[in-house]
UniProtKB/TrEMBL annotation, chains A, B:
Residues 33-52 bind DNA. GO terms for molecular function: DNA-binding transcription factor activity; transcription cis-regulatory region binding. Residues 10-70 form the HTH tetR-type domain. The keyword Transcription applies. This is HTH tetR-type domain-containing protein.
Length: 177, 177
DNA sequence: GTCTATATCAAGATAGAC
DNA sequence: GTCTATCTTGATATAGAC
């Protein structure tokens, strides 16, 4: 009955994760190293290992926290909106534009689900399912569309003169139930 | 009037890029280092720099070649199909499943367009525009959907029991003009 | 909880001989 | 076109003292 799940983080761990978040937001994903993070905290890199077992644990703590934040945003966007899908899409896109490096952290590598807060992925995905009246296949299609638009925009893959607002609208109008 | 564009590759450069492709396909993106590539070629890493100026040049030569291959595949899929969009989507998904690491190489970082073969990005995108009767906004929406489905599948982001064929169908049916 | 010192490894790239 | 030798950098992580 060994239930290996992330503990509730101590205050110090939360400080460390908060510093990691600032670091990623300000300097990008590649800047997230144990040394660099320690600099921000005013300590030496090896000290971090007294609080977190390794770098993956740090990343997953940050990812979990960001899922929590996204889930809250999406739930709020959904609440009492006349156009649930549109509101959700706007919240999704806005989050990624405000936190491009965090967005990449969450989406551009495979996840170790054992190291995430249990159920948090599902909680962040739930509002989309709800906005689509419980249609999970359609919700997955819309998620793929939203992620594709988002990451292609962040990575500068659309032509410079592309009208991305228009592309979002066309996609959402087509996919709306 | 200095027009800095990639030269036509010498035979040796093509050998090197071909070896890089095998390396990436068999061992993944992280395995692509100058040393590792040199091992495959039976030479030492510094020798590669006699043929290519740096690692970015190598990557972009490989990306250009892969765009060429994709463009040909997409054009063939489109030719004489009763369901152009469906045929294109199948070709897109199949390519990514057969060459997941190459697909990542092409999509998961920003491109230096100056280092790509001129016009190759557009050529690979053209079949999608054509399948959508020239509607560029819709073509971008469909591309985003296809990329999102593809990369989320490769990165194992959908639930294990998700019916991805169904999600693809729902998305394509909705977006079909 | 933090430190110093260190192990270990691997990366991109250059100089200069042959 | 390839070689050896080397520079430079930076990463994760551990041991053990304080």
């Amino acid at each position: 009955m060994t239930d290996e799940q992330p503990d509730v983080p101590s205050p110090r761990v939360r400080q460390i994760v908060a510093a990691a978040r600032e670091l990623v937001e300000e300097e990008g994903l590649d800047a997230l190293s144990m040394r660099h993070l320690a600099d921000r905290l005013g300590i030496r890199a090896p000290s971090i290992y007294k609080h977190l077992p390794d770098k993956r644990a740090l990343e997953h703590a940050l990812i979990s926290a960001t899922f929590e934040e996204q889930a809250a945003l999406f739930e709020a966007a959904l609440a009492g909106s006349a156009d649930p899908l549109g509101a959700l899409a706007t919240a999704y896109r806005d989050f990624a534009r405000r936190h491009p490096h965090l967005y990449r952290l969450m989406t551009q590598r495979s996840l170790d689900r054992d190291r995430l807060n249990p159920g948090i992925e599902e909680r962040a995905a739930q509002p989309m399912v709800q906005a689509l009246d419980g249609d999970r296949d359609l919700a997955r299609a819309v998620w793929a569309f939203a992620h594709g638009m988002t990451i292609l925009e962040l990575d500068n893959r659309f032509p410079a003169d592309a009208d991305l607002d228009a592309a979002w609208q066309r996609g959402l109008d087509a996919l709306r139930p």
